[in-house]
Specification:
Layout: E1 11-13, E2 16-18, E3 21-25, H1 30-40, E4 46-50, H2 62-78, E5 83-86, H3 89-94, H4 96-107, E6 112-114, H5 117-127, E7 132-137, H6 139-144, H7 146-154, E8 159-164, H8 168-173, H9 180-196, E9 202-205, H10 214-220, E10 226-228, H11 230-244, H12 246-249, E11 258-262, H13 266-277, E12 284-285
Parallel strand pairs: 3-4, 3-5, 4-11, 5-6, 7-8, 7-9, 9-10, 11-12
Antiparallel strand pairs: 1-2
The structure holds D-glutamic acid.
D-glutamic acid binds near residues 56, 88, 89, 138 and 209.
């Protein structure tokens, strides 16, 4: 087994501590977010960590999702990251609030951890006409009702209809997103969501793996239904955040690099990761 190849990414520039922006996911899905973040903000350095050895998170208990996510956050802080994006809906839905409110004040009060649920929710108001929003997510994300709470808090007239798709992540992880099995499950889950309410006109892909199924989703979605992919939304929201928070931005190093770490075998991770980010990936192993 390869040894744990952690490294210290922090450096001092003009007397200021600088380090890559940390991006975390349970596995591969967060790479769909990272790809869009790097497209919008190519000037920064990034450090991606995928906890592939313990993925999927979507069927785990809330306690474990919190525990694993906190380990990843602590690891990225140790590498010097001042800003971490939880590019995972399950971690954002089940762990982010506790980390922000309970852990950050003692762990690193001047650093930030952001998620993907809030920026997505801020966008739905622009897209729906009927106010009926569908959400596809992992069983954990849907059970947490995070999207319901956030959307109905921000837009009290809207109604949120969640549907868990436990087969979609395994389809992606097993490179079956273009196969016949994907046809069956994507059609079935779209039909089940729409049967909750035919007025749904906007559907959030509330799992960072799901953009890899977009061809199938577009094939089976009813006409007139908008599908919201999070990558571009999270990327724009991060650009806006960095502009509004120079005290965080000045700690983000600007070298245009991206390093990939996985808790699983890098020889397994790298080929599939390169499909997600559309460029060669040479990952290293990390123990959280
Ligand atoms: N990437 C995770 C998310 O966005 C899903 C994968 C998992 O279940 O670990 O929820």
């Amino acid at each position: 087994m390869q040894k744990n190849l952690t490294y210290m990414a922090m450096m001092i520039k003009d007397g200021i501590e600088q380090a890559p922006i940390g991006v975390f996911d349970s596995g591969f899905g967060g790479l769909t977010i990272l790809r869009d973040i790097r497209r919008v903000l190519p000037q920064y350095d990034y450090l991606f960590v995928g906890d592939n050895a313990r993925a999927p998170y979507g069927t785990r208990s809330r306690e474990l999702v919190y525990e694993f996510t906190l380990q990843a956050v602590k690891h990225l802080f140790k590498q010097g990251c001042h800003l971490i994006i939880l590019a995972c809906n399950t971690a954002s839905a089940e762990a982010l609030r506790t980390i922000q409110q309970q852990d950050l004040p003692t762990l690193a009060p001047d650093r930030r951890v952001l998620g993907v649920v809030r920026p997505t929710v801020e966008k739905v108001g622009e897209l729906t006409r009927t106010g009926h929003i569908g959400v596809f997510g992992t069983p954990g994300t849907i059970a947490s009702r995070s999207y319901n709470i956030e959307i109905e808090g921000m837009y009290p007239d809207f109604k949120v209809h969640g549907h868990a798709c436990p087969m979609w992540v395994p389809l992606v992880e097993n490179r079956e997103s273009d196969g016949d099995g994907a046809d069956y499950f994507v059609k079935k889950d779209i039909d089940l969501l729409m049967s909750q309410c035919p007025e749904i006109d906007t559907v959030i892909l509330g799992c960072t793996h799901y953009p890899l199924l977009i061809n199938k989703i577009n094939q089976f979605r009813p006409e007139g239904v908008n599908i919201i992919q999070q990558g571009p939304i999270v990327a724009d929201s991060l650009a806006d955040y960095l502009q509004r928070h120079p005290e965080i931005e000045r700690h983000c190093s600007r070298g245009g690099t991206c390093r990939y770490f996985t808790t699983e075998d890098p020889d397994h991770f790298s080929p599939l990761a390169s499909v997600f980010v559309n460029e060669p990936v040479n990952a290293q192993r990390v123990i959280l």
